[in-house]
Amino acid sequence: MTANFSNHRVITDFVTGKPVLDVGPEANRQAVEKYLVNEKGYAREDIVVDMDLVLEVSGMPYRTKLDLVVFVDHIMFMVIKCAAGSLGSREREAVYAARIAGDHPMPVAVASDGHNALVFDAIRRKQIGSGLDAIPSPERARQLLAKTTAVPLPADRQEKEKIIFRSYDIMNVNTAENNC
Fold first, then answer.
1. CA-CA distance, 41 to 71, in Å (whole number)?
2. Is the dihedral of CA 91, 114, 36, 10 positive or negative?
3. Which architecture characterizes domain 25-175 according to CATH?
4. Which tens digits make up the pLDDT trace of 17-32?
5. What is the per-residue DSSP string for 74-121?
6. Domain ranges of the chain
7. What is the pTM of this model?
8. What percent of the chain shows pLDDT beyond 90?
């Protein structure tokens, strides 16, 4: 379903069913959402679109949204940054988002343009795969979670990583929020 709204095309989000502006990487996010559900077998209910993230960075509040956060058995497992351009330029943003979004780092971070993906072990900050097929299935996610010990980041490390994340995230200018 498409319509025009305020000079921007509006599409229906695959996961939420809600209208979204088709700007920036939105088409890429829709492709990733469809891949997660149709190919990997995630339930729509396990994917949070535009998850609110509020951080305190250097004593100041910083508000943003994470493109996609995937839960497995109600546990935050993976953050996905949907990019309209180079995936390499989004890998650190995805990894640090996965490290600071919860009480402890999520195991997996992904940067994807809807056609390709870079997949990272967010705890160790190392690339573990490339291509959409490298995104873990729910079954593989359960295996990874079973081997993962949930350890919070030390406070000083967490503060540094919030600053790194904000430095990348603040450069996201072609988003629906900035185009309303």
1. 12
2. positive
3. Alpha-Beta Complex (3.90)
4. 999 999 989 999 999 9
5. TEEEEEEEE-SS-STTTHHHHHHHHHHSSSS--SEEEEE-SS-EEEEE
6. 25-175
7. 0.90
8. 84
